[in-house]
Amino acid sequence: MKYIVVLGDGMADYPLEAYDGKTPLELAQKPLMDKLAAQGQLGLVKTVPEAYKPGSDVANLSAMGYDPHQYYTGRSPLEAASIGVPLQEGDITFRCNLVTLSEDEPYEEKTMVDYSSDEISTEEAHTLIADLSKAFDTDAIHFYGGISYRHLMVWNGVPLDFELTPPHDITLRKVTDYLPKGPNSDVIFDYMKRSYELLNHHPINEKRRARGLRPANSIWIWGEGEKPHLDAFEQKFGLRGSVVSAVDLVKGIGVCADMEVIEVEGATGNVDTNFEGKAKAAIDALQRGSDFVYLHFEAPDECGHRNETENKIKSIEYLDGRVLAYLLPELEKLEEDYSIMVLPDHPTPLSLRTHTRDAVPFLIYRSNDVQQHDQRYCEKEAAKTGIFVEPGHQLMNLFLQK
User: Fold this and answer.
1) What is the model's pTM?
2) Is pLDDT of 298 > 90?
3) Measured between alpha carbons, how far is 253 from 244 in angstroms, rounded to an integer?
4) Do 57 and 74 meet the contact criterion of CB atoms below 8 Å apart?
5) Is the N end or the C end of the chain the one with fewer CB atoms within 10 Å?
């Protein structure tokens, strides 16, 4: 048996008043997802325990079969693992976004205009982070470049005692009530404030303005954590596993779980990502000996954060027409039984522009157990089945029939 998880990050949503109370999953034209749901198992899964913030870190750990209560140590350490940052004893890691803040007010009264600086290119971002590193690095604190707007700060010897807010949670809000809190937060706030002075008129940002793009004029520090320790996926589930994703968080889970992490050219984490390339990479992994592939797509989540309804619907349709449409015929060619699971990690409602911990719909299709149901893949149809998986990490055992 071969196994593929198709994870549409943030794909679930709330009913949209402007669309007759339908969700993006109901509005999207997705005949293959609906067919798989009708021929398989449909239900809801609670991926984020009540005690945790509804982040993609906790939710993807659950979706991959790892209990957050046992394994979660923070978001940024997983990203550090992905980009190869060596963590020492006493290191605390932080996610460091390059963001766009409004320009006319004192720092404490600025507005979070864009948590991603118009999806700044990795090349531009690395220049900015390198200059920040020259200005800010100390014996204990270091900055590291990641992908696009997603970067890291590592601080050795500081207690893990902070109250920090993800920037995508406060889009278009004043930052006043969301500035760093905690015993050592003054250092973090000083870095953020000084970064604006260094970045706002940086040549990279002046060129971006000239091209009609938002400047990456500040860093925003959040997502603190310490080095994770995950059991190897093969040891835990008895399967050789691979991960295909464009984001360091998910790739970092793969690294920590000793899975093969596959890089795909043109994989961006947005609606313009290389959907076909990622699907092909999944099939290639199975042909090379993997038993399990976790195929992750960030696009629906980014569209939810940006309140881009049409793009969120389009990203779901792309998962159907460009990913599943490639996977299904290729899986048949393997001449081996296979199972596919489709689900989001969490909802990212367009109306809220951030994550929630509501249960999400999943479908499981098995080529050796084709069923017949009158059901489509969406939140409402999944709720009707009465199937509810909690805690969420147990869904992997259901999928793998462990």
Assistant:
1) 0.88
2) yes
3) 11
4) yes
5) C
Q: What is the mean pLDDT of the chain?
A: 96
- Domain that includes residue 338, residue range: 2-71+229-400
Mean pLDDT (whole number) for 26-30: 98
Residues 220 and 241 placed together within one structural domain of the fold = no
Q: Quick one: pLDDT at residue 61?
A: 97
The domain total for the chain is 2
Cβ atoms of 238 and 397 within 8 Å: the answer is no
Asked which of 225, 240, 263 is the last residue of a domain, the reply is 225
Strands 260-262, 241-244: pairing is parallel
